Amino acid sequence: MADRSSDxxxxxxxxxxxxxxxxxxxxxxxxxxxxxxxxxxxxxDDSLIAWLTDFMTLGAGRTDAILLCHAWRASxxxxxxxxxxxxxxxxxxxxxxxxxxxxxxxxRSFLDATLAAWPTPGLxxxxxxxxxxxxxxxxxxxxxxxxxxxxxxxxxxxxxxLVSAAIRxxxxxxxxxxxxxxxxxxxxxxxxxxxxxxxxxxxGGATFRxxxxxxHHENQYTRLFRS
Amino acid sequence: xxxxxxxxxxxxxxxxxxxxxxxxxxAFSAQYFSGYTKPGRISESGSMRVxxxxxxxxxxxxxxxxxxxxxxxxxxxxxxxxxxxxAFVTVATPAAEKVYRSDGPVAEVSVDLTLGPGSRxxxxxxxxxxxxxxxxxxxxxxAMPDDASLSVFEAVVFGRAARREVITxxxxxxxxxxxxxxxxxxxxxxxxSGPISELLARPSVAGGRHALATFLHxxxxxxxxxxxxxxxxxxxxECEAAASAWNGxxxxxxxxxxxxxxxRSACPFLVSFRHAPLPRVWLx
Lengths: 227, 284
Known about the structure:
The structure holds 2 protein chains of 2 kinds. Chain A contains 11 helices and no strands.
C-alpha cells in the first residue's frame, strides 16, 4: 500500500505538466488537423477517430512515443551523449517548417518552465533546440516518474490537444469530442506499450499525405493554428 | 546448384534451395579541375555499373545501370558517390527500377553520398516501381559541409497501373539521414508494411493515390528559394504538391494518382527549380 501511494505521488507532476495550463502553448498547434478539416478528410467523429488512429499508429504519435522512451532512459542514466543523439534525431524528423516549430517551441517552453518551477539535480538542460517528447521524457525521468505512465500520459495529452483543436475547428461538438477522447484510450495504451520495446531504428511512419498537409497549411487562407 | 528463372515468374516456394542473389556495388568520385568536373576513381562489382556519357554542361552526369534488370528478393545493392571540393555531379538512372515479388527476403539498397566543400550533388534516379509482394528496404545517407548543395529526388510507385495491380502484401521502407557539418539535420523513414494498397487508401497515408515523391534541397540558399519553388508547383487533385523550408532546407512532396500524374507535376518543377534540363537519360 505504501508503494502504491508513493507511486501516485510520483505521478502527480504529470497532471500539471500535461495540462493545458502549463505554459507550453499546445493550444496553438493542430499537427496538420486544420488542413485535414479544410480539405474534408476530417468531417465527423468517425473520421476524426480514423485520423487520430493513423496519427497514433502510423505517424507522429508512435514516433514521439519511441523518442520519449529513449530520452527517459538517457536521462535516467545521466547519459548526455545519448540524450543529444535522441534530441538531434527528434528534431531532424520534423518533415516541415511548421511541424519543426511545433515540437521545438513546445519542447523549449516545457523545459524552461520545468527547470524554473520543478528543478531537480537530475534534470539536465539542453542548450539550443529541444524536441517536445524529449523534454517531457527527460523531466519525467529526473522526477522518478515511471516510464509506462509517462508515455501513456504524453500520448493521451496529444489526443486531448488534437480533440480540442477539432472542437474549435467546428466539425465536432463538445460531447462528441469527449467520446472521441475516451475511444482513443485503447490505441494510446497499445502504442505506448509497444514503443517501450522499440529501438531508435524502429522510428518510421506512413502518414505521408498528412505531413504534406502541413506544407499546404503554410498557405492556408484563414488559420487558427500554427501547424 | 542454382535455380534458373526470372524473378517475376510465379515461383513455388523453394526455400530449401539457395537462390541466386544479385549483389552489386558501385563507388565513384567526381573531381573538379579548372572549370570542369571529371570522374575520379571508379569501382564497380556485381550487377551495378556507372556510365558517364559526354554532355555539354559543366558538371558530371553519371548514370547508374543495374544490369540485373530490376531488384528481386534478397538482392543487395550499394552505391557510394563522393563529390570533391567544388565538383558538380548529377546521378541518374536510365529507367524506373522495378522491385519484383519476394517470397520473404527483403532486398536492400543503400546509398551513401559524400559532399566536399563548395560541391553540388543532385541525386535524381527515376521512379522505383513496386510489384505486389515486393519487399524493399532502402537507405540513403548523406554527409555534407555547410557550404555544399545537395538535391535529392526520390519517387516510388506502388503497383503496375496498366494491370491495376493491388499490393496485398509487401514492404517498402525508405530511410533518409542527412548530416550537415557533422550534425543530423534531416531524418525521415517512410515505412509501408503489409497490405500497402489498403494503407494508401487512408487519407493520412495517400488518400487512394499510388505515387509518392520527395524532393529535398539542402543548401545555403534553400530557405530563400521557397517562394520561387512555390511558383513552380501546382497542386491538383491528381497530384497534390507543396513546399516547405526551414533550417537551411527546402522540401517538396508530391502525392499523385499515378506515375504519369507525378511526372506531369514533378518534371516541370525539377527543370525550373534546378535551372537545368532533366538528366538526359530521363528522356530516352
